[in-house]
UniProtKB/TrEMBL annotation:
Pfam families: MerR_1 (PF13411). Gene3D superfamilies: 1.10.1660.10. It comes from Glutamicibacter uratoxydans (Arthrobacter uratoxydans). Keywords: DNA-binding. The lineage of its organism: Bacteria, Bacillati, Actinomycetota, Actinomycetes, Micrococcales. GO terms for molecular function: DNA binding; DNA-binding transcription factor activity. This is MerR family transcriptional regulator. The keyword DNA-binding applies. It comes from the Bacteria.
């Protein structure tokens, strides 16, 4: 399996990894999210366990999950993340991964453009309300001056 490009996690991970609660805290996600990612087959490998059967997340696991979180925040559906995870487990799939990310990038840009249009509409409303308030205050000030 080729080494995927993974986000950097700014946290010192011990050699035996982090327990699920600490991993969730470091990643800014809930414990149930980590369990969900595992159940849905979104991780690169089976989550290592200690002798007591408790999950232990290594630095590479945390970096991968951080990437999953980023992809979800960009609107990528779980089904698509599953495809990326599957491709990332296999050598020689870089061109497929590239095509997948290029398509997702196009969708993110379209969403960004739509969000910018929505923001412009909100800005227009704000200007309209500020103008209405300023006009009302000017009329009130004019009446008070008489």
């Amino acid at each position: 399996m080729s080494d995927p490009l993974l986000p950097h996690i700014d946290f010192e991970v011990p050699a035996d990894g982090l327990p699920i609660g600490k991993a969730a805290e470091v990643l800014g996600v809930g414990v149930e999210a980590l369990r969900y990612y595992e159940r849905e087959g979104l991780l690169l490998r089976a989550t290592p366990r200690d002798a007591g059967g408790r999950r232990r997340y290594g630095a590479r696991d945390l970096a991968w999950i951080s990437g999953l979180v980023l992809l979800r925040k960009t609107g990528m559906p779980i089904a698509s993340i599953r495809v990326i995870a599957d491709l990332s487990r296999r050598d020689g799939t870089e061109s497929q991964r590239l095509a997948f990310f290029e398509e997702h990038r196009t969708r993110v840009i379209e969403q960004l453009e739509q969000t910018q249009r929505h923001l412009a509409a909100i800005d227009h409303k704000i200007i309209s309300y500020r103008t209405a308030i300023a006009s009302r205050e000017a009329v009130t000030d004019e009446r008070d001056a008489q």
